[in-house]
Amino acid sequence: MNTRQVIDRYYELANAGQWDDWCDLFSADTRMDEQLAGHVEGRETLREMMKNFPETYASFANRPRHMVVSDSQAAVVSHISGRTRHGATVEADVCNYFEVADGQITYMCNCHDTVPFAPVMSGQ
């Protein structure tokens, strides 16, 4: 897959809740900087983190609003809408930066305000 196809698939799988397939988009030695999780290294570390995602969110959507793709890099502005298992809502604008090589995400940075995710972090 080219960079655009990888990024399109990233959002398709996230919105379908197919987290194991979503993790497969990342290279084995991927690196990620995430607002809530901090620095993450390795696809299997990411896969372990995502195991709890379905128990955290009753519903989750991450819809791209604007995307720029240039060779092996992409930046996406999106909006997350979610509801926790306890009924709290999450609404947040997000910006993701991606580096892609050989059809896999090798680096990702996720930037957003942490306040909308307070119910998730507190278990609400």
TrEMBL record:
<protein>
    <submittedName>
        <fullName>Ketosteroid isomerase-like protein</fullName>
    </submittedName>
</protein>
<keyword id="KW-0413">Isomerase</keyword>
<feature type="domain" description="SnoaL-like">
    <location>
        <begin position="8"/>
        <end position="107"/>
    </location>
</feature>
<dbReference type="InterPro" id="IPR032710">
    <property type="entry name" value="NTF2-like_dom_sf"/>
</dbReference>
<dbReference type="Pfam" id="PF12680">
    <property type="entry name" value="SnoaL_2"/>
</dbReference>
<dbReference type="InterPro" id="IPR037401">
    <property type="entry name" value="SnoaL-like"/>
</dbReference>
<dbReference type="GO" id="GO:0016853">
    <property type="term" value="F:isomerase activity"/>
</dbReference>
